Sequence to fold (662 residues):
Amino acid sequence: MMQRQKGNRLIMWIVAIGITVVFFYGLNQFIMSAQGLPLNLDLTPAQ
Amino acid sequence: MKPNHHPEGYAEIGQQWARRAFNTMFWAMLMMLVLGMLGIASEYTSMGSAWAAEEAVNLSAGAPEIQTVDYPKIGFSSRSVVWIAAQMHLFFAAFVLAVPLFVVVIEWIGVKSGDERYDDMAHEFMKVSMTAYSITALFGGLLAFALFLLYPHFMGYMTRVFDTQMLWYALLFFAESAILYIYYYSWQALRYGNRKWVHLSFGIGLNVVGTSLLFIANAWATFMMAPSGIDMASGAVTGNIWEIMRGPLWNPVNLHRFIANIAFGGAVVGAYAGYKLLSAKTLSERAHYDWMGYTSNFIAVLAFLPLPFAGYWLMAEIYAYSQQMGITAMGGILAWLFIVQAVLIGTILLASNYYLWSGMSRTEGSLRYQWMIKYIAVVLVLGFLVWVTPHTLILRASEVAALGGSHHHLLGPLGIMPAKNIAVNLMLIATFLSFQLYRRSDKQVTVSWAAWGNAFIVAIYLIAILNIIFAGIYYGYFTNTVYKVGSSVTQVVSTLVVIVAGVLIDSFMFKKAKILPSVWGQVSNRSQYALFALPVAFTWLMALMGYVRSSVRTHWHVYSVVKDNSVDNYIPAIGYAGNMMTIVTVLFLLCILFIFWIASLSNTKQIPPIKSEGH
Fold:
């Protein structure tokens, strides 16, 4: 039971951090390209 | 909705109509304000084109070429006289424009919540600002007389350019005064029901007129820095009044001053609350002023958080208008003032955070969060140290040789904008965290998804902080300038995401939360000194930024159009300016003490003498 609760918590943190990372990655791509400064997939300048 | 035959039915309909009238008035006035800012009104009125035709005929005379002998001499520095009068007027104008802005919101919260304490507090804030209103007008009159006396040719040109707009400014003061007196003195007469909505409408009207006055005066100041609507070679008016007003710096200054006024106003009334708490005679009085102090600090910091971004927009527009002006401001002779600015803002953030941490002692629920305070303090202090690190150093030739260059090889990189942007964004996030912890302290969350909500909040904080640091270091030091400047937007947005997400998630999470007991008044006396530090720092900061704004014009009254040929046609040295700023700050604080005393005096009643028998 305790193991299951710990496992659930780990999944919860992984999901929360994962979604947040994806969100900020997309935010960076969007904001920089909106300014005419496109980025590569690895966030390096494309120009 | 048809009223029933009971009298209350009619009263209910009346209240609905009064509320609708208030809402309509609010949105109509907000739209007028926005349209006015965009100058769209001029495109659709015949007055705009009539003015344009009339001005092209009457105002073809160009800017005056003023000689040194043309300036009147009064025995001491004309610039110093105008500096003091202008700065004092700006301090008080900022205060009296700001107070009604948050007073109306607090009054509205009082109506919505039904809690009379909000209404009483709003009324008390207005009482404090009433005396300040007269002083604002006195310094405004002094400033006008000083300008016309000491700079008659420059003022002649400005009145020719702005023409009847200056009369509108004067007329708006009649409207401001009338609405202000009605708003304040009718407080008890229009306290409940329909009448309260009428009272709130007066408050909205007061703010619209006040904001219009601010925007008109901003047009004069920004015209002097970045003139528009005129022929740049001769200074002759070529456009209508909207083209003259709507220069490239007008809206950035409008936004910056609007927000900064609120922050400043909050800080000043916070000092009033601190003074009243320390002199409170009863526990209920102490509790009342403790709550007032918290509210004031909340207003000051809430308005303060977006200020760096508004300032960044203003500087970006200054650079876009004139690279020379931008470099004078932040890359040249005035650059060190932004280190002084860092000291003051660091003071403001440390003081307001300290006040929040002290306030956590009001409730036992804060014990679970107290372990975080030291880490927030570390972030604030480290951010402050980075922000205060200069790039160019004032060195002798021998010191440059010993250092191996004009910049320190380790600390030099901390002196440029990427490091400052990281520092300020992290300091703002840390301040918001202090707020969020304070708000959570007296609540026990009961929703079933609390663990998920907390996980997302923590994730957003962590990833936003890492994103800010990554964007600042990688794009700031390892890519070209264009990407460096562009990445500052991602940093700002990351900070805003933390704030918005924190507020949203918490507001859903607090539904049906168990409220833990908190004791207003149970706060240390030393925390009130943080409330005193805030207006001192804010006032000095306003004087400093005013010095920068005026100095970027260098030797021009109107940049590149009307040359300043007076004996003061140079940027004053920083030491001299520091003394001037301190003088006006001290003068303002003395006037504020007078205002606080007057506000208390109105509540003081002398006990009648005891009549002895037989006399």
